[in-house]
Amino acid sequence: MDKPELTAEQKKTEMDLWVIAFVTLAVFFCYALKGNQLRTFVTNAEVSVIPRLLVSAGVQFGIAGLGITVVCMLRKEKFTAYGLRKSNTVKAVAGTVLAFVPYICYLIISGQVNGYRPFSILVTDDVIAGGIPLAILGMALIALVWGFFEGFNYAVIGEKINKRYPPQNIWLDYGAITCAVFCVLFHAINISFWGMVEIITTFLAIYGMLLVKRQTGNAWGCVFAFCFIWNAL
């Protein structure tokens, strides 16, 4: 049977996905090779917090944000075209929180919650201790890179995958499935009981988050999740 011919939009979207994949994997492989050295540098309290924050933010943005930014610039697309709108914001946030409930329960039951700290990364304490204006500017950068771009990255990639491979029904969402799988693979996998629970709940959280984004047409739920759940617990 002959393969169905791709539309011009699907061909363009396929190229976009290849660009995003190349940029993301290139940065990730560089990090994989130099990860230990970078972590040592970022956690070295004897070094000024500014270069440590910038290096950490650069790597994070390269993995979750640079690819979609390059594509949007090349295509002259606005971020608002991917769900950054006012309508259905409350529904998107509420639905996303529900999708994360199993993951939150896993963290609590497995004893991994040590308080609630939004935008908590390796250098957050040092940034806050730096005083004004460093604390304000540093936390704004952390919120932008680890909150906005990490969540919005999934929203854009998921939508582009669905443009290339249109879903057949409400539950079979190729973009959500692909993003959820890569989220699991991009983080350390522990083959134990709690490790398997983490994999399942992480998959359900990302999958559910993107289903909500698709149904509401609003991406703020994705941003909310990474600002106030993923990087806070």
Descriptive account of the structure:
It is a single chain. The protein is mainly α and 233 residues long. The protein is 71% helix and 0% strand. It has nine helices and no strands. The chain has helices at residues 8-42, 49-63, 66-75, 89-109, 124-129, 134-164, 174-185, 193-216, 220-230. Helix 7 runs antiparallel to helix 8 and helix 8 (193-216) runs antiparallel to helix 9 (220-230). The longest helix has 35 residues, at 8-42.
Distance between the termini: 50 Å
Poorly predicted regions are: none
**Biggest β-sheet: count, sense, barrel?**
none
Q: What amount of the residues lies in strands?
A: under 5%
Per DSSP E runs of 2 or more residues, the count of β-strands stands at: 0
Instruction: Assign a percent range to the helix content.
Output: over 70%
The SS-based structural class is mainly alpha
- SSE ordering: HHHHHHHHH
The DSSP helix count reads 9
Query: Which word captures the global form?
Result: globular
User: Radius of gyration, rounded?
Assistant: 18 Å
Q: On the 0-100 scale, what is the average pLDDT? A: 92
Gist?
By secondary structure, the chain is mainly alpha-helical.
